[in-house]
């Protein structure tokens, strides 16, 4: 996968929304606090919608699903693919989060918030599902 | 009277060609007239011959729903517009003192801004080529003022460049251009480009580099009064005694590479970011309010759509009154559904699998916009920054200065963040008070006056906006290819509209052009029925 291409396309997306171009995780020099543990990635990328503790949140006629006590996390490929590719309101994080970050995040989700799926998710598990990612936008 | 007075306007001419020879001919004529590259908009839809009694339910009173209701009503349809919130406009929205914003998760922010100050949490600038929007602003007398996009005196800040000190755009942009020009000139003079550029073009290119990069007689980029005439002086020119200027010192190429200023230089080249841009006087929601004045009698506010059903005879929409909980049904021949896909994808809708799948295929941003009110305009008074943006590589991504009330005493509101990507989700994941604190901490690195002058702030994390469940739509190329056509295709008696159903995602122009296209196709369908 061509990272420079991804960056460029995302730059265009960022420009469309009127954000500054550097406001971009994969872009040059964008400064974010470290997100090395699964919990740190959750706080940085997921909590805004899925809420602290993964409790989810209700909106107009729709809701962000709770990740707490969520049996869909039992099949690791489901959260991995959803994170990589996005779904409905949820943006895609393939190309934004690294495979290692996604692996740690999914492992964290599967072993916290009342979920108990002990088998860790590896970087390789994520990479295997990372083909044909939607890397570009508008 | 001159012959000029008998010449039809370009619009009248195109309209006549469109009516008599079809839209393809009109497009061709537009191209010939040098018009087509700017906009596809040739005027409001001409919906004629509406069947008596034909009715349409429009869902969602954002700009797409509002323009659909306005034009369909004008064309003679019986229209009803159903809106979840208690106000028109949707994301066309401004927050002012006294307003309250409630987030998903329950956090409440009360806006404390002084009268006249506002935050536009959603759209905030209008490109000069978004002609549909400009048309309706003109039609409804929405006063527009310039939105200052480019400001050479605003800052470029990178935490790892210049020891974290913000630099003026004019300094770094001039230096970047100068150093690159010098290198280009060296490459030419050393013959590195001999196989690519003719001898004659080499001469012309050298002249271009000398002029564009402000190089000296040795084709080097060095400190001089000529260079200072672009990047600014140590002592600017004045009058009388001691009026002579002194030049500023240029920074190094390596510093320029640290500053990454090409990001900002490139930003201003974007089609949608080019000057001239506009904003409505008094807040962006003046647009939605202007539409609502025209169709107010058609709008049912505070009504939550819970089900959209259809059969061969018509559509039935089930609504819940947000105040009383009372459930009612609304019926019509057709439905224009302008509810954002992020919300609509979770409403029960009787439509084909393809349309339903398309709603899940388009994704949404989760950016964070923040309005900060300060006691005084220190950016103007202390730093001579009037409108425009300072950019930073911190999560806030920029600080944008108000384009109205210049030089005025008293409180003023600036945009303290327009955070996207992970910066947006990071800030949006904080509770409002912590979010404002983080935004102040990042902003004070650029403006040390922040803490002393700060009064109050309000932030809108679009991932936590209950009625939109996200900011603006984002199509991946793959999803666009597989699902876009299915989203916009009329499904029985339902047609979708909104910025998500356009190629101008995230812009009001996308919402308007999508809705106009949708109702034009709907009208054609009713003519065939």
Description:
The complex is a heterodimer of chains A (138) and B (529). Chain A has 138 residues and is an all-alpha fold. Chain A folds into 2 domains: 1-31, no CATH class; 35-128, Cytochrome c-like domain (Cytochrome Bc1 Complex, Chain D, domain 2, Orthogonal Bundle). Chain A has 5 helices and 2 strands, in the order ααββααα. In chain A, helix 2 crosses helix 4. Chain A is globular, with a radius of gyration of 15 Å. Mean pLDDT of chain A is 80; it is low at 1-28. By secondary structure, chain B is of the alpha/beta class. Chain B is built from 18 helices and 27 strands. In chain B, a hairpin with a 5-residue loop joins strand 16 (315-321) and strand 17. The radius of gyration of chain B is 27 Å and the shape is globular. Chain B starts with 9 loop residues before the first helix and ends with a helix. Chains A and B meet through helix 1, helix 2, strand 1 and strand 2 of A and helix 9, strand 15, helix 11, strand 20 and strand 22 of B.
The secondary-structure class of chain B comes to alpha/beta
Report the uncertain regions of chain B.
1-8
Helix-residue proportion of chain B? 25-40%
- Gross morphology of chain B is globular
The rough form of chain A would be described as globular
Helices and strands of chain A, in order, run as HHEEHHH
Overall CATH class of the largest domain in chain B: Alpha Beta
Mean pLDDT of chain B: 93
Strand order of the largest sheet of chain A: 1-2
DSSP summary: helix tally of chain B: 18
CATH superfamily of the largest domain in chain B: FAD/NAD(P)-binding domain
Strand content of chain B: 15-25%
